[in-house]
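Budget justification note: compute hours in this period were largely spent on complex prediction jobs such as the one shown. Inputs:
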Amino acid sequence: MAVTVKIPTQLRATTGGLADLSAEGSTVGEVLEAVFSEHGDLRDRITEEGELRRFVNVYVGGEDIRFGEGLGTAVSDGTEVTILPAVAGG
Amino acid sequence: MKGNDRMAVKNLKCKECSTEYELGANFFCAECFGPLEVRYDYSGLNPEETRRRIQAGSRGIWRYADFLPFDGKAGDPLEPGMTPLIKADRLSDRLGTGAEIYIKNDAANPTHSFKDRVVAVAIAKAKELGFETVACASTGNLANAVAAHAAAAGLDSYVFVPSNLEEQKLLATDIYGTNLVGVNGNYDDVNRLCTQLADEKPWAFVNVNLRPYYAEGSKTLAYETVEQLGWSLPDRVVAPIASGSLFTKISRGFQEWKEIGLVDGEHPVFHGAQAEGCSPVATAFAEGSRVCRPQKPDTIAKSLAIGDPADGPYAVVQANETGGSIDAVNDDRIREGIRLLAETTGIFTETAGGVTVGVLKKLAERGELNDGEKVVVYITGEGLKTLDANRDSFALTEIEPTPDSFESKFGQEVVA
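Corresponding output:
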């Protein structure tokens, strides 16, 4: 299943300048693995020991995946997965 | 001494991995996503000279220019700060404590909340960086402040708020001629949207891409407290926690002045206050964890309703390191706190202040306030902005316009 992964500007140096990546997978974790296999430098920026870094937020269709199943949150064809910094607001 | 010798601002540094960045519109680390913080080099500051310069400075926050993130002279037409610090003996009595309680009434700012401090700094920085449009994600008080300060500075503004916000806060934002955007969602949805837009628009989002500078404004609350206590530190502070930025920056302010030698003494004990209906930081503290699991807010304290607090982990560490705590109170306790403060000090605060006073009361009940110690309670906003919280709470006794009617209702004897 193809989903779109949206990458913030600060990380686009690791994606050859791409803002939107297309990847396959049935969960957020699988999709991110697919993205990392193409863009290896992204892995350490977003994850640490297989988990999302503390200040990385990931949204599926606008909902924070921590309200779902985390990296196990299911994604379907055409879903948008957005990676954003958590340090905004307040 | 040349003016430039005093300018201490240095760069931005990641709080997590220490990667350094130039001073620009940047807020998170590209290496690890950690928050960026403004760094200074205070080695050139002489304490006596600095103190004299502060005392000879302007009336509000710009007297602390040495500790704010600007290369040159900064200011704004609506200078906030130097709000009253009031000794609240009647509140101490009602709480049955021998502690000296002081209320820092930050509702006495231009738009009636502490947000004037952070916004004044952020907008001055936005101008310095050449932005023409400013924006924010807000629970209301920030909306008021951004709209007002943008109007005063002659900048365009976009203010994003949850669409279900209190009418008073919507009205007191739109009046300044901003673009008021009501987002169908909670604050965390608004915040996510603004984080996405900040990546695309050439705008200064005060609490997104300018957040490192914005947050610095809260340090001025600590500086003023020290000055108003005769250049001494309080023993204990009680402050509300939404994102955790205010809570951690007040501490940073005390720390900086201790390091420079502007004030001596023990670092104050920090007590944080949250509403039970949105208490990710209090929950993490209670569980002995640094991880603040996000919550869906459901509380009358909308100005504290941040379910995914950016500085939550740092707030927990700070409460622990100072021997303090982070508590939560329910909506009834919040209303009770608002009334208690009003009845004993003459200050009508908004729901966030009710949360803070509610937690102060809890601390008193638990016997955590010691006789003779100075406790500073930070009241961050104005009661007239959250009238819904106290709607129908008042008693109005109707009478006819005659003395008899008055006496019949109030049962007093007419003195001949």
